[in-house]
Task: structure prediction
Amino acid sequence: MQQADLFADKAPQQLPFTHIANYLNLKQRQLLLAEAETYPFSQPIVTVYGKQHPIPRQQVWFADTGCHIKFSHTLIAAQTWRPMLTKLRQKLLADFEVDFNGVLVNQYRNGLDQMGMHCDDEPEIVPQTPIVSISLGASRDFVVQHKQTKQRHMMSLNDGDLVLMPARMQQTWLHGIPKRSKVMQMRLNYTFRQIIAGYHQDSF
Ligand SMILES: O=C(O)CCC(=O)C(=O)O
Result:
């Protein structure tokens, strides 16, 4: 289940996440990609060290009523679930017995789009719940780095792959998608989360 391209100078070690290659079949991948063409992706502006930048990718958030998230101090209102996303949510419920009530879809238009090293420890995430990530399209490297020891692992995430990040991983590890300028194709990533409904309700 776990196939890691570990950095060459390190002995194989236990990864902090579970990887399932080809979790989605070709038909499921095609239907999701077609539906994603209608998603209202946006590229929010964030402030880093006092300067404003568009994030280096596009994103959209789908979730149940009241399940809003904060992204870089800005509230993101939930879009309503789409049919293929709902089917995927139901498949995850059947396979993992977790009912994820929100999914962040990130679109990496090519290898110049990326996601910096971070952990998903936002307060609106239900404590002790996992995050499941599903990748479509171009293969991209997924890097994890231990917060204290700085130990790093890298593996390629391919079309249809699933990564399950247990809750404890967010406390001890960072993860990210580095820039890869040779990648020309688009990649989509879906991170399914359990959100506390109403957590940001008063802020709207
Ligand atoms: O694109 C990926 O595989 C990672 C996405 C991610 O880290 C996130 O949405 O927080």
Notes: Residues 104, 106, 115, 120, 133, 135, 142, 157, 175, 177, 189, 191 surround 2-oxoglutaric acid (CB under 6 Å). Confidence is low (pLDDT under 50) at residues 1-11.
